[in-house]
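Lab notebook page, bench 4
Experiment: in silico fold of construct C2
Operator: M.H.
Input chain length: 343 residues
Purpose: comparison with the prior construct
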Amino acid sequence: MSATVVLRAGRFSRRTTRRAIVVQVLLVIAVVACSLAALTLGSRSLSIEQVFNALSPGATGIDRMVVVEWRAPRALAAVLFGACLGVSGAMFQSLTRNPLGSPDIVGLNTGAYTGVVVMLMMGNTGYGSQAVGAIVGGIGAAMIIYLLAYRRGMGGFRLVIVGIAVSAMLASVNVWFSVNVDLELAAEAAVWGAGSINGVEWPVVIASAAVAVPLVVMLPMLARRLRQLQLGDDTAAALGVPLERSKALIVIVGVALTALVTAVAGPVAFISLAAPPIATRITGRKGTLDLVGAALVGALLLSASDLIAQHAIPGATLPVGAVTVCLGGLYLIWLLFRESARS
Protein backbone atom coordinates (compact mmCIF):
# COMPACT_ATOMS: atom_id res chain seq x y z
CA MET A 1 0.00 0.00 0.00
CA SER A 2 2.92 2.36 0.71
CA ALA A 3 4.65 1.66 -2.64
CA THR A 4 5.98 4.79 -4.30
CA VAL A 5 4.09 6.11 -7.33
CA VAL A 6 5.20 8.90 -9.68
CA LEU A 7 2.37 10.98 -11.18
CA ARG A 8 3.22 12.94 -14.35
CA ALA A 9 1.32 15.74 -16.13
CA GLY A 10 3.35 17.35 -18.88
CA ARG A 11 6.47 18.93 -17.39
CA PHE A 12 5.28 18.39 -13.83
CA SER A 13 5.70 15.19 -11.85
CA ARG A 14 4.88 14.28 -8.25
CA ARG A 15 6.20 11.41 -6.17
CA THR A 16 3.65 9.96 -3.76
CA THR A 17 2.49 6.61 -2.37
CA ARG A 18 -0.50 4.38 -3.06
CA ARG A 19 -1.63 4.86 0.54
CA ALA A 20 -1.56 8.65 0.13
CA ILE A 21 -3.61 8.42 -3.08
CA VAL A 22 -6.22 6.15 -1.45
CA VAL A 23 -6.47 8.43 1.61
CA GLN A 24 -6.81 11.55 -0.55
CA VAL A 25 -9.59 9.93 -2.59
CA LEU A 26 -11.40 9.05 0.65
CA LEU A 27 -10.94 12.64 1.87
CA VAL A 28 -12.48 13.97 -1.36
CA ILE A 29 -15.46 11.65 -0.86
CA ALA A 30 -15.83 12.83 2.76
CA VAL A 31 -15.69 16.51 1.70
CA VAL A 32 -18.36 15.91 -0.97
CA ALA A 33 -20.50 14.07 1.59
CA CYS A 34 -20.24 16.99 4.03
CA SER A 35 -21.15 19.46 1.28
CA LEU A 36 -24.19 17.40 0.26
CA ALA A 37 -25.26 17.18 3.89
CA ALA A 38 -24.98 20.98 4.13
CA LEU A 39 -27.27 21.29 1.10
CA THR A 40 -29.90 18.91 2.46
CA LEU A 41 -30.09 19.95 6.13
CA GLY A 42 -31.85 23.06 7.41
CA SER A 43 -35.23 24.49 8.28
CA ARG A 44 -36.41 23.14 4.91
CA SER A 45 -35.04 19.58 4.78
CA LEU A 46 -34.44 18.19 1.32
CA SER A 47 -33.63 14.75 -0.02
CA ILE A 48 -30.53 14.05 -2.10
CA GLU A 49 -32.77 13.68 -5.15
CA GLN A 50 -34.34 17.11 -4.53
CA VAL A 51 -30.85 18.62 -4.19
CA PHE A 52 -29.70 17.16 -7.52
CA ASN A 53 -32.92 18.32 -9.17
CA ALA A 54 -32.36 21.84 -7.79
CA LEU A 55 -28.78 21.83 -9.12
CA SER A 56 -29.78 20.66 -12.59
CA PRO A 57 -29.84 23.24 -15.45
CA GLY A 58 -33.16 25.02 -15.85
CA ALA A 59 -34.38 24.21 -12.34
CA THR A 60 -36.78 26.70 -10.76
CA GLY A 61 -38.84 27.02 -7.61
CA ILE A 62 -38.21 27.28 -3.91
CA ASP A 63 -35.89 24.25 -3.78
CA ARG A 64 -33.52 25.85 -6.27
CA MET A 65 -33.47 29.09 -4.30
CA VAL A 66 -32.75 27.24 -1.04
CA VAL A 67 -30.01 25.05 -2.51
CA VAL A 68 -28.33 27.33 -5.07
CA GLU A 69 -28.79 30.79 -3.57
CA TRP A 70 -28.73 30.10 0.19
CA ARG A 71 -26.84 26.90 1.02
CA ALA A 72 -24.40 26.26 -1.85
CA PRO A 73 -22.29 29.45 -1.36
CA ARG A 74 -21.78 28.62 2.32
CA ALA A 75 -20.90 24.98 1.60
CA LEU A 76 -18.39 25.93 -1.11
CA ALA A 77 -16.93 28.68 1.08
CA ALA A 78 -16.28 26.11 3.83
CA VAL A 79 -14.41 23.87 1.37
CA LEU A 80 -12.42 26.72 -0.18
CA PHE A 81 -11.52 28.45 3.09
CA GLY A 82 -10.63 25.18 4.82
CA ALA A 83 -8.30 24.23 1.96
CA CYS A 84 -6.65 27.67 2.06
CA LEU A 85 -6.08 27.41 5.83
CA GLY A 86 -4.73 23.86 5.53
CA VAL A 87 -2.23 24.82 2.82
CA SER A 88 -1.19 27.99 4.68
CA GLY A 89 -0.61 25.98 7.88
CA ALA A 90 1.46 23.37 6.02
CA MET A 91 3.63 26.08 4.44
CA PHE A 92 4.32 27.87 7.73
CA GLN A 93 4.91 24.65 9.71
CA SER A 94 7.30 23.41 7.03
CA LEU A 95 9.10 26.76 6.85
CA THR A 96 9.52 27.04 10.63
CA ARG A 97 10.04 23.25 11.04
CA ASN A 98 7.76 23.57 14.05
CA PRO A 99 4.24 22.07 14.48
CA LEU A 100 3.22 25.25 16.35
CA GLY A 101 4.28 27.48 13.47
CA SER A 102 0.78 27.96 12.05
CA PRO A 103 -0.65 31.39 11.13
CA ASP A 104 -3.12 31.50 14.03
CA ILE A 105 -0.39 30.73 16.59
CA VAL A 106 2.19 33.21 15.26
CA GLY A 107 -0.31 36.08 15.33
CA LEU A 108 -1.52 36.64 11.78
CA ASN A 109 -5.17 36.19 12.79
CA THR A 110 -4.69 38.58 15.69
CA GLY A 111 -3.10 41.10 13.32
CA ALA A 112 -6.09 40.83 10.99
CA TYR A 113 -8.40 41.38 14.00
CA THR A 114 -6.41 44.51 14.90
CA GLY A 115 -6.75 45.74 11.31
CA VAL A 116 -10.54 45.47 11.57
CA VAL A 117 -10.46 47.23 14.96
CA VAL A 118 -8.50 50.13 13.44
CA MET A 119 -11.02 50.43 10.60
CA LEU A 120 -13.90 50.50 13.10
CA MET A 121 -12.13 53.17 15.15
CA MET A 122 -11.84 55.26 11.96
CA GLY A 123 -15.60 54.97 11.45
CA ASN A 124 -15.41 52.50 8.54
CA THR A 125 -18.05 49.91 9.41
CA GLY A 126 -18.77 48.50 5.93
CA TYR A 127 -18.01 44.94 4.84
CA GLY A 128 -15.41 46.03 2.29
CA SER A 129 -13.63 48.24 4.81
CA GLN A 130 -13.41 45.37 7.28
CA ALA A 131 -11.98 43.08 4.58
CA VAL A 132 -9.32 45.67 3.69
CA GLY A 133 -8.51 46.14 7.38
CA ALA A 134 -8.16 42.38 7.89
CA ILE A 135 -5.82 41.96 4.91
CA VAL A 136 -3.67 44.99 5.79
CA GLY A 137 -3.58 43.94 9.47
CA GLY A 138 -2.53 40.37 8.65
CA ILE A 139 0.17 41.46 6.21
CA GLY A 140 1.37 44.18 8.61
CA ALA A 141 1.66 41.68 11.47
CA ALA A 142 3.60 39.31 9.21
CA MET A 143 6.03 42.08 8.22
CA ILE A 144 6.61 43.08 11.86
CA ILE A 145 7.18 39.46 12.89
CA TYR A 146 9.50 38.81 9.95
CA LEU A 147 11.62 41.92 10.63
CA LEU A 148 11.86 41.25 14.38
CA ALA A 149 12.74 37.57 13.79
CA TYR A 150 15.37 38.33 11.14
CA ARG A 151 18.93 37.88 12.39
CA ARG A 152 21.31 37.16 9.50
CA GLY A 153 18.51 35.01 8.14
CA MET A 154 15.18 33.87 9.50
CA GLY A 155 15.13 31.06 12.05
CA GLY A 156 11.92 29.04 12.38
CA PHE A 157 11.91 28.80 16.19
CA ARG A 158 12.68 32.53 16.53
CA LEU A 159 9.80 33.37 14.18
CA VAL A 160 7.35 31.34 16.30
CA ILE A 161 8.49 32.98 19.56
CA VAL A 162 8.41 36.50 18.09
CA GLY A 163 5.01 35.73 16.55
CA ILE A 164 3.55 34.67 19.90
CA ALA A 165 4.91 37.85 21.53
CA VAL A 166 3.53 40.12 18.78
CA SER A 167 0.20 38.28 18.95
CA ALA A 168 -0.01 38.91 22.71
CA MET A 169 0.66 42.64 22.22
CA LEU A 170 -1.92 42.97 19.44
CA ALA A 171 -4.44 41.02 21.54
CA SER A 172 -4.03 43.61 24.31
CA VAL A 173 -4.85 46.35 21.78
CA ASN A 174 -7.98 44.47 20.76
CA VAL A 175 -9.07 44.09 24.40
CA TRP A 176 -8.43 47.79 25.03
CA PHE A 177 -10.66 48.60 22.05
CA SER A 178 -13.50 46.43 23.32
CA VAL A 179 -13.63 48.19 26.71
CA ASN A 180 -13.17 51.77 25.48
CA VAL A 181 -15.54 52.16 22.53
CA ASP A 182 -19.27 52.25 22.02
CA LEU A 183 -21.03 49.03 22.85
CA GLU A 184 -22.32 48.74 19.28
CA LEU A 185 -18.82 48.88 17.74
CA ALA A 186 -17.42 46.49 20.34
CA ALA A 187 -20.23 44.04 19.62
CA GLU A 188 -19.60 44.32 15.87
CA ALA A 189 -15.90 43.59 16.33
CA ALA A 190 -16.68 40.69 18.68
CA VAL A 191 -19.11 39.12 16.18
CA TRP A 192 -16.52 39.38 13.40
CA GLY A 193 -13.80 38.05 15.69
CA ALA A 194 -15.81 34.92 16.51
CA GLY A 195 -15.30 33.66 12.94
CA SER A 196 -18.37 32.81 10.85
CA ILE A 197 -19.28 32.03 7.25
CA ASN A 198 -22.96 32.63 7.87
CA GLY A 199 -24.48 34.78 5.11
CA VAL A 200 -21.68 34.26 2.57
CA GLU A 201 -23.04 34.86 -0.94
CA TRP A 202 -21.92 33.98 -4.47
CA PRO A 203 -20.05 37.27 -5.22
CA VAL A 204 -17.87 36.72 -2.14
CA VAL A 205 -17.18 33.07 -3.02
CA ILE A 206 -16.32 33.96 -6.63
CA ALA A 207 -14.06 36.85 -5.57
CA SER A 208 -12.30 34.61 -3.02
CA ALA A 209 -11.78 31.88 -5.62
CA ALA A 210 -10.38 34.46 -8.07
CA VAL A 211 -7.76 35.41 -5.47
CA ALA A 212 -7.03 31.82 -4.40
CA VAL A 213 -6.50 30.35 -7.89
CA PRO A 214 -3.34 32.38 -8.75
CA LEU A 215 -1.91 31.49 -5.32
CA VAL A 216 -2.66 27.78 -5.88
CA VAL A 217 -0.90 27.94 -9.28
CA MET A 218 2.28 29.00 -7.47
CA LEU A 219 2.16 26.08 -5.04
CA PRO A 220 4.06 23.46 -7.13
CA MET A 221 7.05 25.82 -7.39
CA LEU A 222 6.86 26.76 -3.70
CA ALA A 223 6.46 23.12 -2.64
CA ARG A 224 9.71 22.27 -4.42
CA ARG A 225 11.54 25.07 -2.59
CA LEU A 226 9.96 24.09 0.73
CA ARG A 227 11.18 20.51 0.35
CA GLN A 228 14.68 21.80 -0.34
CA LEU A 229 14.49 24.14 2.67
CA GLN A 230 13.46 21.18 4.85
CA LEU A 231 16.94 19.75 4.24
CA GLY A 232 18.43 22.71 6.12
CA ASP A 233 19.61 26.15 5.05
CA ASP A 234 23.16 25.06 4.20
CA THR A 235 22.01 22.13 2.04
CA ALA A 236 19.32 24.23 0.34
CA ALA A 237 21.86 26.97 -0.42
CA ALA A 238 24.23 24.36 -1.84
CA LEU A 239 21.38 23.23 -4.14
CA GLY A 240 21.08 26.78 -5.47
CA VAL A 241 17.99 27.88 -3.53
CA PRO A 242 17.94 31.66 -2.82
CA LEU A 243 17.19 31.31 0.89
CA GLU A 244 15.79 34.63 2.08
CA ARG A 245 13.99 35.39 -1.19
CA SER A 246 12.33 31.96 -1.10
CA LYS A 247 11.35 32.33 2.57
CA ALA A 248 9.90 35.81 1.96
CA LEU A 249 7.88 34.52 -1.02
CA ILE A 250 6.55 31.58 1.01
CA VAL A 251 5.56 33.91 3.87
CA ILE A 252 3.76 36.27 1.46
CA VAL A 253 1.74 33.46 -0.15
CA GLY A 254 0.94 31.89 3.24
CA VAL A 255 -0.20 35.24 4.64
CA ALA A 256 -2.30 35.91 1.53
CA LEU A 257 -4.11 32.57 1.91
CA THR A 258 -4.83 33.27 5.58
CA ALA A 259 -5.84 36.90 4.98
CA LEU A 260 -8.20 35.77 2.20
CA VAL A 261 -10.15 33.67 4.70
CA THR A 262 -9.91 36.13 7.58
CA ALA A 263 -11.16 39.02 5.46
CA VAL A 264 -14.41 37.16 4.75
CA ALA A 265 -15.01 34.90 7.74
CA GLY A 266 -13.00 36.47 10.53
CA PRO A 267 -10.30 34.55 12.41
CA VAL A 268 -10.99 30.79 12.21
CA ALA A 269 -8.59 29.09 14.59
CA PHE A 270 -6.92 25.66 14.65
CA ILE A 271 -7.68 24.52 11.08
CA SER A 272 -4.24 25.61 9.88
CA LEU A 273 -2.67 24.16 13.04
CA ALA A 274 -4.31 20.73 12.96
CA ALA A 275 -4.77 19.96 9.23
CA PRO A 276 -1.10 19.47 8.20
CA PRO A 277 -0.10 17.00 10.98
CA ILE A 278 -3.36 15.07 10.57
CA ALA A 279 -2.70 14.81 6.82
CA THR A 280 0.85 13.54 7.25
CA ARG A 281 -0.30 11.03 9.89
CA ILE A 282 -3.16 9.46 7.91
CA THR A 283 -1.26 9.42 4.60
CA GLY A 284 1.84 7.94 6.23
CA ARG A 285 4.08 10.64 4.74
CA LYS A 286 5.76 11.73 7.97
CA GLY A 287 8.59 14.17 7.49
CA THR A 288 7.47 15.17 4.00
CA LEU A 289 5.49 18.16 2.80
CA ASP A 290 1.93 17.27 1.78
CA LEU A 291 0.08 20.35 0.56
CA VAL A 292 -2.67 18.32 -1.16
CA GLY A 293 -3.39 16.28 1.96
CA ALA A 294 -3.36 19.40 4.16
CA ALA A 295 -5.79 21.16 1.80
CA LEU A 296 -8.21 18.19 1.81
CA VAL A 297 -8.06 17.73 5.59
CA GLY A 298 -8.55 21.48 6.09
CA ALA A 299 -11.57 21.45 3.76
CA LEU A 300 -13.04 18.47 5.60
CA LEU A 301 -12.44 19.96 9.07
CA LEU A 302 -14.03 23.30 8.22
CA SER A 303 -16.97 21.72 6.34
CA ALA A 304 -17.68 19.35 9.26
CA SER A 305 -17.25 22.19 11.78
CA ASP A 306 -19.72 24.35 9.87
CA LEU A 307 -22.25 21.51 9.84
CA ILE A 308 -21.87 21.21 13.62
CA ALA A 309 -22.17 25.01 13.99
CA GLN A 310 -25.43 25.03 12.03
CA HIS A 311 -27.19 21.98 13.42
CA ALA A 312 -25.67 20.89 16.77
CA ILE A 313 -28.08 23.08 18.76
CA PRO A 314 -31.65 23.12 17.38
CA GLY A 315 -32.85 26.64 16.69
CA ALA A 316 -29.41 28.24 17.14
CA THR A 317 -26.45 28.79 14.80
CA LEU A 318 -23.00 28.95 16.35
CA PRO A 319 -20.04 30.79 14.77
CA VAL A 320 -17.87 28.19 13.09
CA GLY A 321 -14.84 29.70 14.84
CA ALA A 322 -16.28 28.59 18.20
CA VAL A 323 -16.57 25.00 16.94
CA THR A 324 -13.03 24.92 15.52
CA VAL A 325 -11.68 26.24 18.83
CA CYS A 326 -13.43 23.39 20.69
CA LEU A 327 -12.14 20.78 18.21
CA GLY A 328 -8.67 22.32 18.35
CA GLY A 329 -8.70 22.14 22.15
CA LEU A 330 -9.56 18.44 22.01
CA TYR A 331 -6.77 17.93 19.47
CA LEU A 332 -4.22 19.67 21.71
CA ILE A 333 -5.35 17.62 24.75
CA TRP A 334 -4.95 14.40 22.72
CA LEU A 335 -1.53 15.58 21.54
CA LEU A 336 -0.49 16.33 25.14
CA PHE A 337 -1.55 12.88 26.38
CA ARG A 338 0.18 11.22 23.45
CA GLU A 339 3.45 13.04 24.08
CA SER A 340 3.19 12.29 27.83
CA ALA A 341 2.71 8.60 27.08
CA ARG A 342 5.76 8.64 24.81
CA SER A 343 7.97 10.28 27.43
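Observations: The CA atoms of residues 233 and 272 lie 24 Å apart. DSSP finds 14 helices and two strands in the chain.
Next step: discuss at group meeting.
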